[in-house]
Design brief:
Blueprint (H helix, E strand, L loop, with lengths): L10 H8 L8 E5 L4 H10 L3 E5 L1 H6 L10 H14 L10 H33 L13 H7 L4 H34 L1 H6 L7 H11 L8 H8 L6 E3 L2 E3 L9 H16 L6 H11 L1 H23 L8
Parallel strand pairs: 1-2
Antiparallel strand pairs: 3-4
Amino acid sequence: MQRARMAPADRAHVRKWLGRFRGQELEVALEATTGWRFVVEELRRVGAVVHLAEPAETAGLRGPKKRAKNDRADARHLRERLMLGRLPESWIAPDHVLDLRARVRLRHELGEQRSEWQQRIQAVVCHHGCPQRRQLMVGDGREWLAAQPLPETAREQVTVALAMIDALDRQMRPIEKQLRAYARRQAGCKALMADYGIGELTAVTILAELGDCTRFSASRQAVRYAGLDITVYQSDQRRAPGHISRQGPPALRWALYEAAQVARARETSPDREYYLQARERVGGNRACLSVGRKLLKGSYHTLRELGEEALAPA
């Protein structure tokens, strides 16, 4: 057994340290935390078999009892789980899928920031007693904003927010163009777009985030991975009302919800009747989430049937 601490823990120092193991039989477990990608690449470079541990599940296996936590204890915990064959592993995606996923998440994060700046504008308008208007970035929304009797400080807030939205739009356009072009030529994305409601952006997001569907034995596992499963907390006769877990990739949930919004709204949609029935029971928002789960299950089966072609580079 060897122990070492690398400082700084960059690619060059990791590569130098791992050089001593080249040609040896090496099996390594590490957590899927920040920086795992280059460590996995360097481990594979020396011929190691790599196991990427899912952080939350790995931590949960320690149990509820309070114990000392440090790097050495973490390493021992990973080693013991690996030796027992009970390490909760994450899928290590191919490089082209990791790159696609990074681009998809970048686009999603920019969109989230854009929404936050729009919400700030709505808050300023509401704070100063102006009439409420939902659509401020389309049509004559900006002209309407300019005509509102806002004080100087509030006007400055709105001006800065609009400038930030414009800057985010400029960054998003080329990324969206690349993603749409990829979706139009990639086999998995084209198969996903055959489902009603799934477009170019949502298809490429579902493909990148869902990845290799053969690692899920059933569609319900894909739903759990996406964080759209309903939590259960029951003790004796008491059962708390469930809610979606939100444990999976946020970009995947966004794509499924956007696709569900399209699928529920149009009369020609095959999921329209399903949505209306669900809305009667649980309300519009939960019914839309239910449609999203239905679309996810369909996407799972579509990609699984394609096999290796589903993730083939475009």
